[in-house]
Amino acid sequence: MSAVWLQLITLLCFSFGAPSRADGHGVVRINVGKQLTIQCRSASHQDYLYLKKGLNEEEDIFHLTDSKEPTINQKFTDRLQFHGKLPNVDILIKNLTLDDTGPYWCVYKVADKNYELKATRGNGSVLLVVTENRLSPTVPQCDQSQGDLPLILVSVVICAGVLIVILVASLIWIIIKNNKARRR
Questions:
Q1: What are the DSSP calls for the chain, one per residue?
Q2: Of 17, 60, 141, 180, whose CB count within 10 A is highest?
Q3: Is the pLDDT score of 122 beyond 50?
Q4: pTM listed for this prediction
């Protein structure tokens, strides 16, 4: 049941703010056991690439440099493959599990003249939602044939109604207050 709530919350939170796009950004929904390719891209020269997981980039999944062997997190050792050279790398995660759900960030680091590392996020970061293939209750899908116009109209009407109620209540309160002040 918690998986259904997680899916529902994720869909509601990101349905307007982070639409899924063909270039690999945004929200990606995939069933358990499938695979995902994250395309980390940077326009400038970079010395290090990290694939991090979590809202605060707290878990290192993959680390690549030009000079050393790549480092892969133990949980992903048998399931992660990469192709390409810095700064443009395709990272394939196979046999996805429910635990793989979360945001993934392509983080690049470059050493400056003082050998201090400066981090930047590259293109390719995604929010991965891994779902089960159960026939149990599913989240109903919205009909997209009408577009977002009816939802926008309903939202505008509700906002206008609330604004009118607030204005009328404020006006009544001011009239009552002025009448009491005149009577004194």
A1: -HHHHHHHHHHHHHTTTS---TTS-EEEEEETT--EEEEEB-SS--SEEEEEESTT--EEEEEEESSS--EE-GGGTTTEEEEEETTEEEEEE-S--GGG-EEEEEEEEEE-TTS-EEEEE-BT-EEEEEE----S--PPPP--TTTTHHHHHHHHHHHHHHHHHHHHHHHHHHHHHHHHHHH-
A2: 60
A3: yes
A4: 0.57
